[in-house]
Amino acid sequence: VHHAAAVGQGKGVLNDNKSINTDSYPGGYYLRDITKPMYSQSGGAIETYTAKNKMVSPGTLLTDSDNIWNDPAAVDAHVYAGKVYDYYYTKLGRNSFDDEGGTLKSTVHYRENYGNAGWTGTQMVYGDGDGSDKYAYLSGALDVVAHEITHGVTERTADLVYEGQSGALNESWSDVFGNLIENKSDPEWLCGEDITTPNIPGDALRSMSDPTKYGDPDHMRDYVDTTEDHGGVHTNSGIPNKAFYNFVTTSGVIRDNAAKVWYRALSQYLTSNSKFIDARNATIQAATDLFGAGSTEVNAVTNAWSNVGVG
Ligand SMILES: O=C(O)[C@H](CCc1ccccc1)CC1(C(=O)N[C@@H](Cc2c[nH]c3ccccc23)C(=O)O)CCCC1
Ligand SMILES: [Zn+2]
Asked: What is the chain's Cα-based Rg?
């Protein structure tokens, strides 16, 4: 089928204008980005679909007749997935979630009154919010999109079991890359702030600098033993989240190097049943591999975990 890259226009969830990589066909445009290396290498693309508020995935590939896109949730899901692809490719040398140039599929308008998002095992899905104004369209936050795609990366690397401590590590690695990729200068390292009560500034789902702000632990002594939420994976993630925050804010440690340490730990050392102590050891080993024993990074990561009572 004849494909040609085109550039469309649209507004995102926060009413911001943005250019959109689309794929033209006789008569219109697909919401498909064929400009990435994965396309020339293996035909992989970034594709955005709609579930039309049913519980289906991927649903219907979005098209438009004039390349002016009027679905903010779709615009952001698409553009932000492209930014996440670019980060993993250029900063970490990873070619899409599977490192094989696999197509990144997003489905927006997933289910009715769905105030959440997720990784299905093969793609991202995003709800429209829960009908109240607690959440905006979930794809309207780059840290959320990066969080979901990182679940895909984790599944294809360490494959951390989504339960208990390994599940909290799974969650934390997604929050870490969500914040690294969003790369805001917000001092609190918030998660989901752009889509949480859009009318109220300053609130979020989680904080990495102070997890206790949202009731999550920031030390091993406060680990929450619960059967809720797969053993508290979105709560106990506060402990490794704080450890990463400690690490990345240590003087002499730069973000791109912290990212390399966390990515190497995930892709080379963590395994499906790793616990917090294993994450400490994995990140110390990764920092040693990359920067040498006794380096600033090794000392910083060791202290970062000790500060949260791990190791
Ligand atoms: O990817 C994830 O970890 C979250 C989805 C988790 C999930 C797992 C298995 C089946 C369904 C859903 C989605 C996000 C999340 O952290 N959700 C939290 C908080 C949350 C959002 N909307 C909610 C509605 C109800 C309860 C909690 C929530 C959660 O599911 O706990 C990540 C970034 C923002 C949304
Ligand atoms: Zn998650």
From this structure: 19
- The catalytically annotated residue of 47, 148, 182, 297 is 148
In whole angstroms, give the CA distance from residue 180 to residue 245.
11
The pLDDT tens digits of the residues spanning 163-188 come to 999 999 999 999 999 999 999 987 88
H or E element, residue 279: helix 276-291
Ligand number nearest to the C-alpha of 119: 1
Distances in Å between the Cα of 121 and the Cα atoms of 57, 118, 248, 265 are 11, 9, 29, 21
Per-residue pLDDT of 132-169, as tens digits, reads 889 999 999 999 999 999 999 999 999 999 999 999 99
Give dist(CA 34, CA 46) in Å, integer.
7
ipTM of the shown complex? 0.98
CA of 121 to the centre of ligand 1 (A): 15
State the DSSP code for 196. Answer: B
pTM for the structure as a whole: 0.98
Listed residues: CB within 5 A of ion ligand 2: 171, 174
Strands 68-69 and 4-11: parallel
| 148 assigned to active site | yes
Among all chains, which residue has been given the structure tokens 């053993």? 231
Q: Whose CA is nearest to atom 19 of ligand 1?
A: 205
